[in-house]
Write a structure and sequence with these properties.
The protein is an alpha/beta fold. It folds into two domains: 151 residues, Alpha/beta knot (3-Layer(aba) Sandwich); 61 residues, tRNA(m1g37)methyltransferase, domain 2 (Trp Operon Repressor, Chain A). The protein contains nine helices and nine strands. A five-stranded parallel β-sheet has the order 2-1-6-5-7, with helices on both faces. A hairpin with a 2-residue loop joins strand 8 and strand 9. The structure holds S-adenosylmethionine.
Length: 265
């Protein structure tokens, strides 16, 4: 997959390309990456890319000519790529959009600065507008990195079996299960014994349980819009029954009922 970023700060991307999974994906030729400097397409000798807004008001607007020139140059390099404008007013980026992008031939990512870009660019040169969330960044560069990062790890073969993306949060509309690593006891807190049991069936069941329960507690909206399997329904039902039992016992016998009437201290 081909990523081309159009920006007035191309140097921002050098450390990004040079680390971790992105670097590995580049080395393995799973992705190719480049940044085009929009200033190179400015027509004046000072390479100015912004101007005052028509109608007055504060801030500067990115001029259309340098952006149009940069987009045309990117299209020549990667004619099958989808042209994306990063903007807080765009379609919200999430894991399903990342999945959609990961299957494309390429992305041309146009980064705005200042108060944004001239509207004629949005209308005539762009296929899709994407926002990474309801907040305002100073420029589209971080948003472009977020998109490249999230899409790259979903390209087949980039992560490999070891860090497969299949079980990541959101891939099946649930949050991922809890994780533990060595040491077995950390500051008096022990790793759940099932994870040390070697019983893979029980471990899978525990993982599904923690995944469902933490989704319910942290992101209930995800569960509400997702069909549940019969095993998942059983897990949630059991959880409800356990909670009901605690409520029932405590309302009848008080909190001591749980500890068999023994009080601490
Ligand atoms: N005045 C614009 C508005 O209110 O819609 C915001 C401009 S913002 C300061 C400058 C640039 O940062 C935008 O053109 C866009 O490229 C980028 N940007 C800011 N927030 C973003 C977000 N949430 N998602 C994607 N890009 C964003």
């Amino acid at each position: 997959m081909n990523f081309i970023v159009l920006t007035i700060f191309p140097e921002m991307f050098n450390p990004f390309w040079e680390h971790g999974i992105i670097r590995r994906a580049v080395n393995q030729e799973k992705i190719s990456v480049s940044a085009i400097d929009v200033r190179d397409f400015a027509e004046d000798k000072h390479h100015i890319t912004d101007d005052r807004p028509y109608g007055g008001g504060c801030g500067m607007i990115m001029k259309p000519e340098p952006l149009a020139g940069a987009i045309r140059a990117a299209e020549k390099k990667a004619p099958l790529s989808k042209k994306i404008l990063l903007t807080p007013q765009g379609r919200r980026f999430d894991q399903s959009v990342a999945q959609e992008f990961a299957s494309l031939d390429g992305l041309i990512l146009v980064c705005g600065r200042y108060e944004g870009v001239d509207e004629r660019i949005c209308h005539d040169f762009i296929d899709d507008e994407i926002s990474i969330g309801d907040y305002i960044l100073t420029g589209g560069e971080l948003a472009a990195m977020v998109i490249i990062d999230a899409a790259t790890r979903l390209i087949p073969g980039v992560l490999g079996g070891k860090d497969s993306a299949e079980k990541d949060s959101f891939s099946d509309s649930v949050l991922e299960h809890a994780h533990y690593t060595r040491p077995r006891i950390f500051e008096d807190v022990e790793v759940p014994s099932v994870l040390l049991s070697g019983n893979h069936k029980e471990i899978e069941k525990w993982r599904l349980e923690t995944s469902l329960i933490r989704t319910f507690l942290k992101r209930r909206d995800l569960l509400e819009n997702r069909p549940l399997s019969s095993q998942e329904i059983e897990i949630l039902k059991k959880w409800c029954l356990d909670i009901e039992k605690i409520i029932h016992d405590q309302s009848l016998f008080g909190p001591d009922a749980l500890s068999g009437g023994q009080q601490e201290g």
